[in-house]
Amino acid sequence: MKHVCIWGIAALMLACTPTKDPVEQKIDELLSQMTLQEKIGQMNQLNGMGMSDDLKAQIREGRVGSLLNEVNVDVVNEMQRVAVEESRLGIPLIFARDVIHGFKTIFPIPLGQAATWNPEIVEAGARVAAKEATASGIRWTFSPMIDVSRDARWGRIAESYGEDTYINAVMGVATIKGYQTDNLADSTAMAACAKHFCGYGASESGKDYNTTWIPEVQLRDVYLPSFKAAVDAGCATFMCSFNDINGVPSTGSKFLNKRILREEWQYDGLLVTDWGSMQQMIPHGYCSDMKDAAEKAANAAVDMDMMSYGYIDHLEDLVKEGKVSEKTIDEAVRNILRLKFRLGLFENPYTAKVENPYYRPEYLETAKQAAIESTILLKNDNNVLPLSNVTSVAVVGPLSNVGVDQIGTWCFDGEPEKSVTPMQAFQQLENVKVIAEPGLQYSRDKSQAGINKAVAAAKKADVVLCFVGEEAILSGEAKCRADISLPGAQSQLIKELKATGKPLVLVVMAGRPLTMGAEINMADAVLWQFHAGTMAGPALADLIMGKAVPSGKLPVTMPKMVGQVPMYYSHKNTGRPASNITLIDDIPVAAGQFSIGSTSYHLDAGDKPLYPFGYGLSYTSFEYGQPVLSDSVMKQDGQITVTCQVKNIGKYDAYETAQLYTRDLVASLCQPVRQLKGFQKVWIKAGETATVTFTVKPADLAFCHEDMATYAEPGEFHLWVSADSQQGIPVKFVLK
Ligand code: GLC
After folding, report:
1. From the CB of residue 680, how many other CB atoms can be counted at a distance below 10 Å?
2. What is the C-alpha to C-alpha distance for residues 435 and 77, in angstroms, rounded to an integer?
3. For a pocket test of ligand 1, which of 94, 209, 274 has the largest count of ligand atoms closer than 8 A to its C-beta?
4. How many CB atoms neighbour CB 267 within 10 A?
5. Using one digit for the tens of pLDDT, what is the confidence trace for 252-306?
6. Of 66, 68, 98, 277, which is best to mutate to test ligand 1, by the most ligand atoms within 8 angstroms of its C-beta?
């Protein structure tokens, strides 16, 4: 009986033991053949520009796992040949590049893509980017950047999907799907990279690389969810962030990289440092030297070292000294090999030639549609837009005809000469005479010498179209501004154009919100683009001439003044929410200290932004009914269905994005006055009514508690379905 029992148990265990995943079996097999040096070689990522003999030698010796920035497909294939055919184990390289919002066909910067509130167009854009980039041999992009960004001074807000956690999650997932498809081994699939992990957008004073202090509760409620969504979407890789978070640089953070990413989330993808971020732990004052930095990064479960040479120079000694275990090395190499197997690089390491890989008409059309949907109509007095019965336009301003600026930051491979600028787009129109005069040579141009020519052009035209904003170089990495007003003499240009009395349409092209209240007041209409890419010009021509209707909505708050920043809609109510506001110029002389009230606002700005998160107009108008709830009581195991009627009461068929917000009125930790929990972009014909439907569950209402548990608390909630984060009358429901 005893033997039968034992064998029976063994058979049962065998039957229950899951057959090991074939990829894991291949990894085991390969790992068992690798020397320690070869394992460490896989953890080394180098800048692969050019095909130097020295680089080939390092590849041949198995000292390189990945190359970044080589985009000549012949060079890529030759480097790959050396790895596959001349190294001892023939492990293929993975080639990476920053393909952030397009490779050759450039889409709106991610902040502009967020302004579309359309994950489908974002996914379509990422798909185009992957098709173009993989034709160059790139199979790994360092995108999406899903850092919640609430500070317009920070240059990298341009690369994010804005200030909201939910939007960063939704758009990040859409981008990942577009890059990776559901078959990472497809030759047009590209591994995505969720970055920068984590909290980078909280850099103090909006200054890049600056320190961040983020309480764990806030980290879990605001900054981590977009990354968790990326894990759930199967994002193949993650990247560390440059910042220290509460004193520990992310690259050395066991809390982030082991506790959260590996233990809590069970992530089995590859974690790479940012460029040199391992070495930067020395100036951070966290590591004494490169060997110390390599030790701390390895023991913080960072798999691959981008350009610090820390692993390749020191890991072997660290293992021999017992400071880093070979088990740690094996875990890292498993993650790297797993990515290469999943990409199919062992079976298909080379890039086949692709005919006509770039700028295909369908790619450009997708980019134009994304640019159209990213454009936000902020103002349209007297319905000056869309133009009608116009025979001549003055196209002026420093961004009216500059291909390199309209494609924005992080466009390594975008070709400015391929951009179609607003001036070019208008010149292609029939029956419209274009009088072009930039007035200023570039956005920072302080010389006013050219303004009179722009004014003269304006006087000859029916309407003035003035293209202003920021050159591309004024946003992106390390491009932070303490003053976020219009640079140069642009404000003076607008003032003098206004003085002509001609209808004035401002078109802003920028990498961030700008404090432009005065200039916007001078304009009759304002269209806003966060650098909208190759097809920004045709998109604007269609919108201004009425072939398309604006549908973009702000993914960030537009402050009146930089002193209001950081400013975001999902703020707390405070104990003294703003009321009885007395602005600085309205304070009586010798007013008594408490005579003008004591609530939460700035004397010189009030408490409201210039434009709120979620705001955007159309050429038509929409009327929202009150939300109707399936039940006013939600059970912990239940849900509520929300319906709301949205009527197009104007004369243009158009998109509208209905936004679902909730507020937890009383909780054991103070909760924001509103939080976006859903949105629907719907096409509504003039005069017709659409019904938008949402489902709200307790999990949507959950927040992190002091014990770090995340769950929803019973109590009363407000719920809105509205056109932006300030409009709407809430309905109440109770969570039991
Ligand atoms: C940069 C950026 C990161 C980028 C990497 C590679 O410094 O911080 O976002 O992917 O280096 O270029």
Report:
1. 17
2. 49
3. 274
4. 22
5. 999 999 999 999 999 999 999 999 999 999 999 999 999 999 999 999 999 999 9
6. 98
Q: If DSSP states are collapsed to H, E and C, what string results for 515-560? A: CCHHHHHHCCEEEEEECCCCCHHHHHHHHHHCCCCCCCCCCCCECC
Query: What are the distances in angstroms from CA 211 to CA 196, 200, 206, 248, 651?
Result: 14, 9, 10, 9, 51
Whether 98 is in the pocket of ligand 1, judged by its Cβ within 6 Å, is: yes
408 Rama class: left (phi>0) / alpha (psi -120 to 50) / beta = left
d(CA 571, CA 599): 15
Q: Which phi and psi angles does 516 have, rounded to 5°?
A: -125, 30
Summarize pLDDT for 103-143 with one digit per residue, the tens. Answer: 999 999 999 999 999 999 999 999 999 999 999 999 999 99
- Does residue 275's CB lie within 6 angstroms of at least one atom of ligand 1? yes
The predicted pLDDT at position 2 comes to: 45
Centre of ligand 1 to C-alpha 275, Å, is 6
* pLDDT, position 235: 98
Predicted confidence band at 4 (pLDDT cuts at 50, 70, 90)?
very low
Q: For residue 9, is pLDDT > 90? A: no
| Interatomic CA distance for residues 665 and 714, integer angstroms | 10
d(Cα 277, Cα 240) in Å, to the nearest integer?
8
Annotated catalytic residue, options 274, 303, 413, 524 = 274
Which domains does the chain carry? 361-545 (3.40.50.1700), 568-608 (no CATH), 622-735 (2.60.40.10)
**Cα(698) to centroid(ligand 1), Å:** 38
**Cβ burial, residue 270 (10 Å; 0-12/13-18/19+):** buried
- Is any ligand 1 atom within 6 A of the Cβ of residue 104? no
DSSP H/E element including 327 = helix 326-342
User: At residue 416, what is the residue type?
Assistant: P
Task: Read off the amino acid at residue 322.
Answer: G
Beta strands of 470-579 (E only): which ranges?
504-510, 525-530
274 as an active site residue: the answer is yes
pTM over 0.90: yes
* Tokens at 557, concatenated: 């708050």
